[in-house]
Amino acid sequence: MSWVWILVLLLHTLKTGTALIDSDDVITREEQIYLLIGARAACDRSIRSQMALIEGQCVPEWDGIVCWPRGAAGQWVSMACPEYIYDFNHRGRVYRQCDVSGAWEQADALNRTWANYSECTLLSSDYSSHAEVAACWSWFHNVHV
Ligand SMILES: *[C@@H]1O[C@H](CO)[C@@H](O)[C@H](O)[C@H]1NC(C)=O
Ligand SMILES: *[C@@H]1O[C@H](CO)[C@@H](O)[C@H](O)[C@H]1NC(C)=O
């Protein structure tokens, strides 16, 4: 997928106002992407509206799936597995650690911030839709920075 494609999606989303979800309780890959784009836009607005950072705090940021608030140095931060990821276990939580210097913990091998999503993926036996979400997930991770 390319940025052109994302632009088309964005323009379409702007034109129609909101993402449309079929009433048949099945979510397509496109619908899932609409939801993620909406969540990211909301996250960007939220981050812009937050006051200047205090030294030593982890920055609020969008990681491709979850909109993280600022974090206090040396603390774990957790967020509910987001509703807008259809296949997640919505009773689970995602965890991330803000280290003592006020930087989000990195996944060493990947050189990027790391979060523990294992509770979010505990649930479903529907492997095909898991694969779908995983595809969206990795795609967003690849393009969002
Ligand atoms: C890790 O990312 C930082 C900032 O994005 C960059 O400056 C650094 O070179 C990267 N390190 C590796 C090993 O890729
Ligand atoms: C991720 O979270 C789960 C459940 O909360 C925990 O059991 C697991 O040890 C964590 N994984 C890592 C690598 O921290």
UniProtKB/TrEMBL annotation:
Keywords: Signal. One of its GO terms (cellular component) is plasma membrane. The keyword Signal applies. Residues 42-124 form the G-protein coupled receptors family 2 profile domain. InterPro entries: GPCR_2, GPCR_2_extracell_dom_sf, GPCR_2_extracellular_dom, GPCR_2_secretin-like_CS. PROSITE patterns: G_PROTEIN_RECEP_F2_1, G_PROTEIN_RECEP_F2_3. One of its GO terms (biological process) is adenylate cyclase-modulating G protein-coupled receptor signaling pathway. SUPFAM superfamilies: Hormone receptor domain. Residues 1-19 form the signal peptide. GO terms for molecular function: G protein-coupled peptide receptor activity; peptide hormone binding. Pfam families: HRM. This is G-protein coupled receptors family 2 profile 1 domain-containing protein. It comes from Muraenolepis orangiensis. The lineage of its organism: Eukaryota, Metazoa, Chordata, Craniata, Vertebrata.
